[in-house]
Amino acid sequence: MEVFDNFIDLFMTAKKQSASPSNPQADALVERIYKEIQDRKGQLAKDVSQKGEEPASLIQAGNALERIKTKEKRVRKWPKILRPVRRDQQTVNDCLLNAIENVISEVSQFRKTLANLYPQNRETSNRPMAVIDKRINHLEGKIGHFDAALQLIVARLQRSGELSPELRKGEGADSAATVSLFDELQDLRVDAFYLDFEDKFRGSREMIKERLLEFTSHLCALKERVEDATAVDVGCGRGEWLEVLKENGIAARGVDMNARMAMQCHAYGLDAECGDGIAYLQNLPSDSLALVSGFHIVEHLTLSQLLELFYQSLRVLRPGGMAIFETPNPECLKVSSYTFYLDPTHRNPIPPELLSFIGTHTGFREANIERLHLYKEEGIYKGYGDYVGIFVK
């Protein structure tokens, strides 16, 4: 993927080489890029194509991939098409953007097909549900990564049409323009890793949603206290809690720093965006929400970030509003000595007394701790694996 960065830099300097209508180095690099795209799509098509009976919706997904491959073959003609216009950088950018956006359109259609696979397959396929679920998640992950990478390339090309080469090298450019495309693509790779990590160690989406239904009684009480309940879920992840809120008649938006998580929420028709949750709260008006929530996020924060999360939550909540923060319970020895450290992004366990104190210290009038999810080892209960702090303004 690092070839994309060089690809854009070469085209940005192409108009300086006006004496030569062709750039062999750029041509070779373009060929490498399209070979990589073709290989990835070929693997994706191979994943879709299986021997034996296939659900109709899965066949549709395969057909969508074939259309993507057809688009890609047309895109391979870029080098020859672009030679006459390389002296005009804006024309080059427009050609590239148009071609990439055509591919993105096909990717979008494929994502919609995938989103429809789950309910259709559960009703029509004779295959074991676990196999189908794993297959769908695998395909969704691959196409999601490709889609996000294309979006980054489009954004970079759009910026390159507005900035001079000197600015693009960082001489007075803003931070967004100076981050290399390679670094952005590496961040996408980390996002993909963390999504797979959540699926493996946190549990399936269905299991987590079932756990979250335990909070339904709190939501009912909240709606009695605050009219027109609205919510923000910080670190919304795969959107299980957003779905519970929606089913309980609470308008909610999720914010997550992982772009792949936000994209998965979109696939389920949920309102979510990629960004910093605390910064998002900072930009909201005071007394504008009924609920701020964050499941398994506080253990990722520094002390200053944790305090800011509580201060901003208190500010944006209306009187009677509620903040819910769930985190691993260090009272359980297995959690505090082992499972907590499975997640490489965790900072430190937070004892219940500390979280409760932070709530009252920052101004919440009520701070209640509830221990959740009994942990069993070799048939013996070892304690509660998680706890939640429920804070009322």
Sum this structure up briefly:
The chain is an alpha/beta fold and 393 residues long. Helix content is 58%, strand content 15%.
What keyword list fits this structure?
single chain; 393 residues; alpha/beta; Rossmann fold; 2 domains; seven-stranded mixed sheet; 17 helices; 15% strand; disordered N terminus
What does the model show?
The chain is an alpha/beta fold. The protein folds into 2 domains: 3-200, no CATH class; 205-392, Vaccinia Virus protein VP39 (Rossmann fold). It is 58% helix and 15% strand. It has 17 helices and 7 strands. The chain has helices at 3-12, 24-48, 56-75, 78-82, 89-124, 129-160, 165-168, 175-178, 181-202, 205-212, 216-225, 240-247, 259-267, 277-282, 303-316, 333-337, 352-361, and strands spanning 230-234, 251-256, 272-274, 289-295, 317-328, 366-377, 380-392. The chain has a 7-stranded mixed beta sheet. Helix 3 runs antiparallel to helix 5. The longest helix has 36 residues, at 89-124. The protein is globular. It starts with a helix and ends with a strand. 31% of the residues are buried.
Residue fraction in strands: 5-15%
Unreliable sequence segments: 1-21, 121-126, 162-177
Structural class computed from helices and strand pairing? alpha/beta
Query: Strand order across the biggest sheet?
Result: 3-2-1-4-5-7-6
Number of helices: 17
Order of helices and strands: HHHHHHHHHHHEHEHEHEHEHHEE
Give the N-to-C terminal Cα separation.
Answer: 48 Å
Question: Which shape, going by the Cα principal axes?
Answer: globular
Q: Mind summarizing the main beta sheet?
A: 7 strands, mixed
